[in-house]
Amino acid sequence: MAIAASALAEQQVVLALLGATGQRHPRLVARLAPAVEAHEAHVAVLADAVPEGVDVTPSSSPSSSPSTGPSSSPRSPSPSAETSSSGAPVRVPGRRSAAMAAVARAERELGTTLKRHAFKAESGAFARVLGSMAAAAAQNAAVLDTARGARS
Amino acid sequence: MTPLEALQATLTGEHAAIYVYGVVGGRVSASAQAELAEQVRAAYTIHRGRRDQLMAMVRAAGADPVPAEVSYELPNPASTSAQLRRVAREVEQRCAAVYADMVGSTSGANRQWALDALEDTSVRMLDLGADPEPFPGVEEL
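^ inputs. structure came back:
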C-alpha cells in the first residue's frame, strides 16, 4: 500500500531527527522520550501494513542508507539505528532551543502529511489510525514547542 | 457504521460535551480559577460550533439531527480545580474517540472535518493536563 509505505518512511525521518537530537543534546532526551515512544509505536503499526519487499529504507539495515544521521552529528559517539533510516542528512541545531524548535516543526509537518494520507486512504480503518497518528504528532509538536515548554 | 450514523454519533458526543462544559463552567470561578475558566469557555464555544456544523452536515445528508438529552451524567462530582479539569479532559478524550470513529466512517469533506476536530481536541487535552499519547482517540492501540 503506497500510503503506508510513504507514512512509514516519513515517520522514520522524524524518528531519525529525534534520535540525532537526543545524541547531540543529551539533556533533551527525557523531553523527547514520549515522542520517540509514539513514533516507534506508529512505525510498528505501519510496518505491519506495508507489504514485504517494498523499499521504505528500513532502520534495521543501515547499509541501505548511504547518507546517515551520525555523520552530520559530530558528537555522536556511535552509529544508531534511529539515525540511519533517512536518506537525507539529519541536521541538528547546536542550540537546544533551536533544536527543540526544529523537532516541533518536523512534528507539525508530519501531522499535516499524515492528515493528508488519512484523507486519501481508501480503508476507513486505516484512515482512522492515520488520523490518530496525525493527532499524536500535533500533540508532540505542542509539547515540544519551546514557548509552551517554558510554561510547563 | 454508515457515514450518516457516524455524523449522528458525533453529534450525540457534542451534545454531551456541551452539557458537561455548561455544568463545569458553572462551577469554575472566573476570578479564582481564571485559566481554567478561559479553557472551559473556549472549549464550550468550540463544541457548540461543532454541534451546529454537524447538524448542518446531517441535514445535508437528508436526515434529522439527533436531539440532545435532557441531562447527562457527569464523570465525577467535580468541584475542585483538579476535578473539574479532569472532567473536561475526559470530555475531550471521549470526543477524540468519536472523531476518530468518524474519520473511519466518512470520506471527503466530512472526513477532513473529523481529522481537524481530532487534532484540535487532542491538543486541547494537553492544556487540560493530559499527557501526549501514541494513538489519541484509538483505544485498542
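Confidence is low (pLDDT under 50) at residues 58-86 of chain A. Chain A has one domain: 2-151.
thumbs up if we can close this ticket
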